[in-house]
Amino acid sequence: MPAAVRHTPAVTDPDALHALVCAYPLDDAPRLEYANAIRYDDPARRDFIEAQIEYHRKQLAMDGATLELSARIQVLSEQGMRWADDIRGYVSGLTFYRGFVEHISIDAEWFTESAEELYRLQPVLHVDVEDANLVSEDLFRCPHLDRIVSMSFLRCDFGDAEAEQLAASPWLSHLEWLDLSHNHIGPAGLEAIAASPHLPKLGYLCIDGNDVPDPTPRFADEYDTTSAEARRLVEAYGPREWLDARPRWKWPPSRYCVYPAG
């Protein structure tokens, strides 16, 4: 599971600090300590980590002064692939966040087989899963899902059976952001997700383009209202943040900004 706070003696070795980054993926401190440890050997890497962490903090603070930071990060990111050599062979896509690879696209079967190694290499928190319908039972029984904060199953050919397997998984207690759009999920699948006791942190669900109308909030202004279906599900199963149409600063929320800074 992702840890937000660490309690360790002072560490200065870059390899040991990198291991701490992966062990405490929500914590900025080991990332900044790693950046400081490599400041002479790889100043561009140091600058990249520090700039992305600053950008993340400004996003969380709703500070719009990020244009200059964004341009700086773009220039530094041209060297990014050499900072991801360890994980590139496992994934079909990757994105750096807070200076390290946090977001990956990966085949579902390959994820279940290699998740432990992936987490040792990079502080992965966000996963776009490919071909998940082929191994959905194994995937949702995988205990390594316990670390993941956001997941996308876009166009995975999911139906009610796969939605029910997801809802029954005991390993998604840290999941905050979920994209199930453009599948074949019907009323039974939506009902299972709403009834699930295993998704306590789920704040955003996209179920657009399925075989059931999307009951979730679509806008962020004061005129947005909870749908009749959302009200029914809440009455049946209790409050669900992903069904709540309260005004929000941004809708849909960024999958990278749904948890607090370390």
CATH architecture call of the largest domain: Alpha-Beta Horseshoe
Radius of gyration: 19 Å
Query: Helical element count?
Result: 9
CATH class of the largest domain: Alpha Beta
Instruction: Tally the structural domains.
Output: 2
N-to-C series of helices and strands: HHHHEEHEHEHEHEH
For the record, give the distance between the C-alpha atoms at the N and C termini, rounded to a whole number: 15 Å
Structural class: alpha/beta
Description:
The protein is of the alpha/beta class and 262 residues long. The chain has a 6-stranded mixed sheet. Helix 5 links the parallel strand 2 and strand 3. It is globular. It starts with 13 loop residues before the first helix and ends in a 25-residue tail after the last helix.
Strand and helix map with partners:
Layout (H helix, E strand, L loop, with lengths): L13 H10 L5 H9 L5 H18 L6 H10 L16 E5 L2 E8 H14 L4 E5 L5 H5 L9 E3 L7 H9 L8 E3 L7 H9 L8 E3 L21 H10 L25
Parallel strand pairs: 2-3, 3-4, 4-5, 5-6
Antiparallel strand pairs: 1-2
